[in-house]
Amino acid sequence: MTPRTIVITGASDGIGAAAARTLAKAGERVVVVGRSAEKTRALAKELDADYFVCDFADLAQVRTLAAQLKDNYPRIDVLANNAGGIMGKHLRTVDGNESTFQINHLAPFLLTTLLMDTLTASNAKVINTSSGANSFGKLDLFDLNAEHTYSTNRAYGTAKLANILFTSELHRRFGEQGITPAAFHPGVVRTNFAAESTSPWRHAYKTLLNRFMLTPDQGADTLLWLINGTAGTDWISGAYYYKRALAKANAQAYDAELARGLWDASEELVKATA
């Protein structure tokens, strides 16, 4: 069989790197994308894979990445939007957006929509890494940059809720054109997650609690299951998963009007930076 072209963002560490290693070993053509040039280059060399460096805190870099991917890969079978993280205090990106919201939602939204022609022509899967933290998110279309109410945990939870809403709306808008999206919660994984943030969560990843977390390989299991499975047979397009099973999300995740509104608002926010 011809190897699939699988693009994984946030691939220089954690579950992204674990998934990339497994897929490359299986003979797939893996394209790794990461923020750290050093770590991303090292993984690409290990896997003999192509790589690109991109900081999702800068949407100009996301646009450049999309152009590079389109130029180099006429077919993309899987786009795994895995990059993200928790930031800590309220910060604005160079684009003027709250950093947690941009890095976790707006950047992958922009990357996906810029690649849409290639993805639809490829009947691609789009897999979005969400989190169980979506349960304490609260999406307000009139305060997407959390100017009025902000907390570290809520900002992260809201961004992960946005991943699920994006997934369902992606299915509604492009499912008939061949796109099969899914979102998933990897579990609490022993990675460098939050390590560079000011979030209190960063301490848990450096203490004894670390011993009770999943390994990156364990956290990558559902991601690999979605990538290797078949939508409509193994999993439902547009849905949210945990441990290879449908998972219950925040009540807002099932609000179709909110999903439409988020898509439209996201288009406006990324358009402003064009």
Strand order, main sheet: write it out: 3-2-1-4-5-6-7-8
Number of helices: 10
SSE-based structural type = alpha/beta
Q: Compute the CA-based radius of gyration.
A: 17 Å
* Main pleated sheet: 8 strands, mixed
Low-pLDDT stretches: none
* Beta strands, count: 8
Percent in strands: 5-15%
How far from one another are the termini?
A: 39 Å
| SSE sequence, one letter per element | EHEHEHEHHEHEHHHEEH
Shape: globular
The residue-averaged pLDDT reads 92
- What is the helix content? 40-55%
Protein traits:
274 residues; alpha/beta; eight-stranded mixed beta sheet; globular
Characterization of this structure:
With 274 residues, the chain is an alpha/beta fold. Helices cover 42% and strands 12% of the residues. Strands 3-2-1-4-5-6-7-8 form an eight-stranded mixed beta sheet, with helices on both faces.
Please outline the helices and strands.
Elements: E1 5-8, H1 14-25, E2 29-34, H2 37-47, E3 50-53, H3 59-72, E4 78-81, H4 99-114, H5 116-121, E5 125-129, H6 152-174, E6 180-185, H7 201-204, H8 216-219, H9 221-228, E7 240-242, E8 245-246, H10 256-271
Parallel strand pairs: 1-2, 1-4, 2-3, 4-5, 5-6, 6-7
Antiparallel strand pairs: 7-8
Short description:
The protein is built from 10 helices and 8 strands. The model has no long low-confidence stretch (mean pLDDT 92).
